Amino acid sequence: MNPVSDRKAAANIEAAYPLSPMQEGMLFHTLLAPQSGIYLMQNRYKLEGALDTRAFVSAWRKVVQRHPMLRTRFVWKNQKRPLQVVLKQVELPFDVEDLRTSEHPEAQIEALLRTEREHGLDLESPPTRFRLLRLADTRYEFIHSFHHIVLDEWCTSLLMTDFVALYEAERAGCEATLPPARPYRDYIEWLGKRDPASTEAFWRRYLDGFETPTPLGLELAHQRGEIVDIATRLDRGATGALEELVKRHRLTLNTIVQGAWALLLARYAGTREVVFGVTVAGRPPELVGVDAMVGLFINTLPLRVRTDGHQPLVPWLRALLAQNLELRQFEHTPLVDIQRYSAIERGQELFESLFVFENAPIDPSLQNG
Length: 369
Known about the structure:
single chain, alpha+beta, 11 helices, globular
């Protein structure tokens, strides 16, 4: 060991604190299957027009310096409990490559990203890297790779909004004026102040009488663990009708689609009550400034829905919306704890299907900008 090197490393530590339950889960599964590419996110952006490469790289480095989560590494070896360690200064990988002479640039990029997924990102260093690839004189692709343990989808708009402001300031030769960024450690501290007794009482009451996970009722074929994406789009007419329904009855689009899945699941399972998983934003409204915080907040919860077939649709959907709002008070609860509060045997899944409604906010300045 080098004492001088150790002192320098210690002097570069800004903060150290525990992981959130969701972060601990992601860390566990990543270490369990290190070459699976699980939780490795690769956001890709197509850029057209003249680009100031120097300002582009500098702006992203300032984004990293602004948000502690992008400077966070994870420590678990020889620890009773894993820690996340925020570094004061960090030089994240930022590759700038010119692919204008490449015969097959898209294939080259796909191979590059496939290799990255196979090798993963080192969690003992801040697991974030950037690539700016030039495909033509005025055409680029920007790739932001990161482990899900540091960011969720909500953060995408926050980071891009900051980047645009910093990039424009860099090009103008001035400093951008941005509000202070509240650190993720404030959320960890908030979690530590929750009352475990009231949380446990709520979930035991919520799941009382639920003894059997709702089956999908379908024969699922698993081929080498591969996942197939099936996408469908609603036309303008159907979309407009749904939006009008939501507006007229003071509902949310999330509630409408949740209700549709509950009815379909009840039909497949042959039951009047279903339980399925839902992914929630997990940003507590009582934590001031949480909407602008960068970090991992999402959580997965069980949603219990009764479908007796006699209640009129709109009142039933309103009751479902009210139930979602009630869950928000306890949406920080780790799923492993929720299962422990239920009658479902340990080792058996609490639910067999997961419903995710992605509606992370996008800053209007980023749309068609």
